[in-house]
Amino acid sequence: MKVSTKEFLAALEVFANRKLNFPREVGELIELGASKPEVFQDIIFHAKFVTNSYRVMTRIGFDAEGYDKLSAEFKESLEKVSTLIKTLVKESADEIKTRFTGQFFRLDQESLSMLMRLLADLALVKNWMVDGKKLPT
Question: How far apart are CA 17 and CA 8, in angstroms?
C-alpha cells in the first residue's frame, strides 16, 4: 500500500474519531478505485446510503410506516455496492480477490456483518469527501 494511502487512512480515523474496521481493505479499494474513479464514487455513495438506511430501519422497526420501501431500497443498494466492489476487485491481485470473496461475499450472516462494517468504513470516506477533502493520489 502506498504511503499516501496509509497517511490518508490515519487521517480518516482522526476525522471519524474511530478506528476503521477494515483499513487494509479500504486502502486497497481506494488504490484500485484510482483507475476507475466513477466506480469508486458509486461505491462510497451506496456505502453511505446502505449504512444510513440500516440505521434508520433498526431505529424505526419493521412494523413502521415506510419500512418496506426503505428495506427494498436498502436491499437494492446493498446488491449494487457489492457488485461495484466486485468490479474493482476482479482486476486486482489473486490474493486480494480471494480475501474479499472470502470475507465479504460468502452467503452467510458473518460475511454480511463484515460487509456492513466495511461499508461503514467506506461511508466515512464519503463523509470525508463531502467535507471538501481529497483522496490520496
Answer: 14
